[in-house]
Amino acid sequence: MRTRALGNTGPTVSVLGLGLMGMSDLYGPADEAESIATVHAALDAGITLMDTGDFYGMGDNEMLLRKALAGRDRDKVVVSVKFGALRDPAGGWVGHDARPAAVKNFAAYSLRRLGTDHIDIYRPARLDPDVPIEDTVGAIAELIQAGYVRHIGLSEVGAETLRRANAVHPVADLQIEYSLLSRGIEREILPVARELGIGVTAYGVLSRGLLSGHWTPDRELGARDFRANSPRFQGDNLRRNLELVQALREIADGRSATVAQVAVAWVASRGEDIVPLVGARRRSRLTESLGAADLKLTPDDLAAIERAVPADAAAGGRYAGPQLASLDSEK
Questions:
Q1: What is the rounded CA–CA span in Å between residue 91 and residue 224?
Q2: What is the per-residue burial (b if ≥16 Cβ within 10 Å, else e) of 15-28?
Q3: How far apart are CA 98 and CA 14, in angstroms?
Q4: Could you say which DSSP state residue 326 is in?
Q5: C-beta neighbour count of 120 within 10 angstroms
Q6: CB-neighbour burial class of residue 13 (10 A; exposed 0-12, middle 13-18, buried 19+)
Q7: Model pTM?
Q8: What is the pLDDT of residue 28?
Q9: Which residues of the chain have pLDDT under 50?
Q10: What angle do CA 111, 112, 116 make, to 5 degrees?
Q11: According to the model, what pLDDT value does residue 223 have?
Q12: 304 contacts: CB under 8 Å, gap ≥ 6
């Protein structure tokens, strides 16, 4: 598989990464054996970037990754960990904590759950409004000096926060939502990241399944699936968004590709500094996404995609109102 560097200072990783969140949380029940088999299939296909979070399944996701990496060469895998999101026993969200002491505490638990002596990329999941980003980044820098972390990442922060963080210690990459339906980073965040030499790991490249080509208007979402409260999956918004998918399908059919492959390939085409994260929970979906790595979109393809799904065409926000308002990247 082809590779890309995460910014000027980050590691070299596969052109696609694997996001593990759905294997433990937020998308409803998942099968652990199939999840581990999917990680194995990704590794065997050449995917080297594995993205997790210490709050995915309240630690279960990290332990799942530990099982999946057992017997594998750890030095050939880049493990990215998000921290700081606080959960209650019912799985609810109760804030963020990125104080320096909390950073080191979260890292200690992640190292133990992952069964590793280092985390390749460590990042706060969101900006803690009560803690200067300089303090958070400084704490991660101390973990780097101590050998527990290799690189600093950030997630869902705005351009000014990127500048402030990078002034303390070089930031390898920014993890942020980027897809045909979520292109807000193009206005300011992506240009500043490129100015500073910071890479982008793009999550939500299939817009939580909307761009998978497999979504149907009558699909029922369980209580544990956060998409049940997502504006893009509701009523007229869903119908409008699926019309965009249908327009994209016509382009995909012309390339003998799937909608998902075109959507992932589009994100990858936006620059050599962008690595799409695919959130496959099953080997069949992973196999489909892997086809995007070899799909080269022509200028005519890109123009047709732009006509079919222009910027800001999505109906509904990418998160519900209160969540969207809390994102530093949206300010």
A1: 9
A2: bbbbbbbbbbbebe
A3: 29
A4: T
A5: 24
A6: buried
A7: 0.94
A8: 78
A9: none
A10: 55
A11: 64
A12: 251
The pLDDT of residue 27 is 80
Determine phi and psi for 82, rounding to 5 degrees: -100, 145
307 within 8 A of 251, measured Cβ to Cβ:
no
Q: What is the pLDDT of residues 8-40, one digit of tens each?
A: 999 999 999 999 999 998 787 889 999 999 999
Q: How many residues does the chain have?
A: 331
Catalytic residue among 27, 56, 178, 203: 56
- Residue 37 and residue 68: Cα distance in Å, rounded? 8
Catalogue all structural domains in the chain, each as residue range(s) with its CATH number. 3-211+271-293 (3.20.20.100)
Inter-residue contact 120 to 147 (CB < 8 Å): no
Give pLDDT, residue 172: 98
What's the rounded Cα separation, in Å, for the pair 14 and 290? 11
203 classed as catalytic: no
Say if residues 84 and 52 touch (Cβ distance below 8 Å). no
Exposed e or buried b per residue across 297-331, where buried means at least 16 C-beta atoms within 10 angstroms of its C-beta: beeebeebbeebbeeebbbbbbbeeebeebbbbee
Rounded Cα distance between 283 and 281, Å, is 7
pLDDT of residue 229: 79
Give the span between the Cα atoms of 67 and 117, in whole angstroms: 15
Instruction: State pLDDT tens for residues 171-227.
Output: 999 999 999 999 999 999 999 999 999 999 999 999 988 999 988 887 877 766 778
Two structure tokens written together for 225: 């699936």
What residue has token string 């590709």?
257
